[in-house]
Design goal:
heterodimer; A: seven-stranded mixed β-sheet; 0% helix; 55% strand; B: mainly beta
Amino acid sequence: QVQLVQSGSELKKPGASVKVSCKASGYTFTSYAMNWVRQAPGQGLEWMGWINTNTGNPTYAQGFTGRFVFSLDTSVSTAYLQISSLKAEDTAVYYCAREIGNYDILTGYYKYYFDYWGQGTLVTVSS
Amino acid sequence: SSELTQDPAVSVALGQTVRITCQGDSLRSYYASWYQQKPGQAPVLVIYGKNNRPSGIPDRFSGSSSGNTASLTITGAQAEDEADYYCNSRDSSGNHRVFGTGTKVTVL
């Protein structure tokens, strides 16, 4: 069965870096895009961007450029999110999510959705 | 700011029907997908495409779309349906994904 298992909670000081992992199993890792989603305490879901697991090419949402880096190790079916120069406002739960997308010829609509999610990784930034 | 707008909160009596809407220009070309999130848990896909439910999602959940509005309907709401619900689709450029602002559903 498909599973996305993320690394455990992290407590970091401001200015430090953190690397969150998302290990996939139960499917061909390079056949599906991987997305990253942030949820600050008490807030909604925020799409951070995605990485093409075939090419390794990342795309970042506005507000997630510069300090945020998506990467892969396809040999172990794992996606990574690295955040550098951590700030208190980076405190959040970070999720990875597998994405499926295609074009519905019958309706002329595109459909994209996140069918599997990791359990989330809490990153706390505090001095 | 989100390009997909949802009502912040709705309530529904146990066993009754509730509809949650998601508005955005991109919905004229892209289906919304819908996610249920309970406190302390990861989001779960409940509706995708025109009106598709993943395995294990009860058939009381259904989706529809018209113009720039997508809707998630819960017919015969149960206590366990109390949760936050988010829509997701593309932004107006079509290049990026975006989540709606979220709707908190309370079952009375």
